[in-house]
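The protein record now logged underneath.
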Amino acid sequence: MANIYEVAELAGVSLATVSRVINPGGSAKVSDKTRQKVLEAMSQLGYQPNSIAQSLATRSSNSVGVLVSELHGPFFGAMLSAIEQTLKAAGKFVLVAAGHSKEEQEREAIRFLVSRNCDALIVHVERLTDKFLVDHDHNTTPLVVMNRKVRGLADHCFSLNNELGGYLATRSLLKNRHKRIAYISGPLDWVDARQRFAGHKRALSEAGVKFDERLLHEGDYHETGGQDALNALFAKNLPFTAVVCANDEMAAGAMAAAHERGLELPRELSIVGFDDAPISRYVYPKLTTIHYPIADMGTMAARWVLKNVYDQPQDVQQAFEPELVERDSVSRAS
């Protein structure tokens, strides 16, 4: 295997010059002609720079840690894919960990990513407090927060207007004359779930429809949770003509429960989801939902890192608005 001495000899330059070409972050510059000679020598010899040595020389690992709640499902898949593609195009790598929506596991995951010398962290966390995120050592390892606004850390946050999304979901049913509307929420100790539920109640209030606590069921953002929730609502023997689900996975589960009962959708039950995940286009009927631009948010979070950590000029957007996507799962109430 070729080494740096052979590269220097073939290119006719000093070891220091080869080092400056490999690690361009220093103050000393190399002319384009000399740089090309070194790169040609590296290519001819098949020389690959040692990544550990590069990290020591530049004080950068060229890696970004990403912490998500789960490693499965379309939501986090879209987010991770967008982050990885954006960073990869800039020559950076991604190291991924999962917190499983448990405080100690989220803390442990952050400690793990920091211990691996990640240059920055992009985190989607549910249990860590705002104080923990603010008190993190941002000078050593800058941290970006997804799907959340943290007081004192606004410049590091990427968020969706979840309250508006919940409002739009319920208003789409109200506009179709539904008044008995059930709601399947996410875990209500999660910020985004509470915000979506608040939007649901605001839409009802504006329409003069009294919120019925009995038509609320707290789910878990999983398909089985949506299925169990709709069955639990039916078991109360209360009339309702429509249901809002706080994400598409639970909406798919609720649709499965409705089909199992022999209900014709949407004639006998209208359903609205949230996220606009790929599954929303393939269930039957196709799901009316709220578009959550999580891939765009992932891209922007990666751009923030490139701009603020690696000094690469980037346009960055941090606040996002949801949009209603009308498909076939809502019909007019009779």
